[in-house]
Amino acid sequence: MTTLPVAQTLHRKGHWSGAADVVTLDYDDRFLRRKRLVTDGGAAFVVDLEKTTSLDAGDALELGDGRLVEVRAAPEAVLVVRGGNLARLAWHIGNRHTPCQIESDHVLIQRDPVIRHMLEHLDAEVSEAEMPFTPEGGAYGHGRTHSHEHGHSAHAHSHDHDHDHGHTHDHAH
């Protein structure tokens, strides 16, 4: 039995150079902690990160021997959203906590018939495409987390985010 190389270190886009190979993953597959992956060149390896992490296109995973594997975004099923008031459409997408990739003349989201229906009723032009999906990372850094809890009592509103930016989110309304 062969032991697979292990990647325990992530280098963010712009902070590394010299990839030995590439792994192409869709948006959902780029959210991981421990997983066996196969590079585009056919080499298997194991990702074993300290915590569940959202990998971005252009990041690199460092194998135990120092080689770097570049992360690329795979083409996937998306909706291309256009309209006269794109800011309003983007607000409605964000209000539903839907990951989105914001471009100058359109917004990309993963295919979702419910969101598509809502957007069409807001007079959006919605079309289907297959392309890499690299949504915005959010206000507090990279990617997404499993937990985003909201209390529903009259004045409760709490967050459990996986980030550190010098203040808490526990506040009364």
TrEMBL record:
Domain UreE urease accessory N-terminal: start-end pairs: 6-69
Give the source lineage, highest ranks first.
Bacteria, Pseudomonadati, Pseudomonadota, Alphaproteobacteria, Rhodobacterales
One Gene Ontology term of the molecular function aspect: nickel cation binding
Organism annotation? Tropicibacter naphthalenivorans
Q: Which SMART domains match?
A: UreE_N
Listed Gene3D superfamilies: Urease metallochaperone UreE, N-terminal domain, UreE, C-terminal domain
| Record's function text | Involved in urease metallocenter assembly. Binds nickel. Probably functions as a nickel donor during metallocenter assembly.
Q: Would you indicate the residue range of the signal peptide?
A: none
Q: What is this protein called?
A: Urease accessory protein UreE
Q: Where in the cell is it found?
A: Cytoplasm
Query: What keywords would UniProt list here?
Result: Chaperone, Cytoplasm, Nickel
Quote the InterPro entries the UniProt record gives: UreE, UreE_C_dom, UreE_N, UreE_N_sf
Q: Where is the composition biased (Basic and acidic residues)?
A: 146-173
Tell me its family. Belongs to the UreE family.
A Gene Ontology annotation in the biological process aspect, one of them, is: urea metabolic process
Which GO CC annotations does the UniProt entry carry? cytoplasm
Annotated region Disordered: the residues are 132-173
